[in-house]
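== Sequence and structure of one protein ==
=== Format: two labelled lines per protein ===
==== Data for this protein ====
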Amino acid sequence: MSEHTRTRTTEEETETDRDERAGCPECGGRLSADSEHGETVCRDCGLVVQEDEIDRGPEWRAFDSAEKDEKSRVGAPTTKMMHDEGLSTNIGWQDKDAYGNSLSSRQRQKMQRLRTWNERFRTRDSKERNLKQALGEIDRMASALGLPENVRETASVIYRRALDEDLLPGRSIEGVATASLYAAARQAGVPRSLDEVERVSRVDKMELTRTYRYIIRELNLEVKPADPESYVPRFASDLELSDEVERRARELIEAAREDGILSGKSPVGLAAASVYASALLCNEKVTQSEVSEVADISEVTIRNRYKELLEAGEVVTA
């Protein structure tokens, strides 16, 4: 019996015992829980004491033990971030038994052989080996960039689509994986600049941009242009600036958008300049060099853009 089944059975038995100890309000007889109808009834007079109870059982029905075992679900949920969607077995690397005791030398050798064969059986063909390598690369880059799990899941789905539609011939696995992650981050509203992605990737910027455009076009992905405001919270957090600075930076960007200044300019540069300008307006100490290091752009870009933002916001500096 699985852990989940034992827990559910224990809960049901506890609830039944509690109902039996309670008395019927009419005759004082014993109460029993009717799980099939979701009611608590008196065994003696048949009074329905409680109805519409919470059904703590599974949502499926089974009419024999074989069907029950087939429909029962245990283990971790499926995920697109693993090549087998998490449905295969996994042998842990710790050489210990269920009680935490260390294995003998002979048992350790046996477990190592089992791990080796288990790893071989998990990838049946070249397509699965390709997918396993790519998803591992996506997870590595997402961790380095601090991207959330939903972005990794989306990137995995994009890569799977590219693999199914035969878009990989002539392109590297790392290039398509990087382009998928970059597109997923843009779709989720937590974009990273090309320079940041290139720093953690195994491909250069030229290959990344070329592969990204190809994937977007062939898969018909809807990716909106990066919004400078989406970079502001991360820059402000890395520079340890206040919420007031972040708010003023958003206001500067919005004013620049209304004046039509954003068109044709790098969103990263605009975001960095707005953070620097708003920090000056809020009397918080931050240098162009510090903002440049966080945003990974030149100080010249910050100087040019922050003046334009201040003019758009009709702000006069001392």
About this structure: Residues 126-145 form the longest helix (20 residues). Residues 1-20 have pLDDT under 50 and may be disordered. Strands lie at 31-34, 39-42, 48-50.
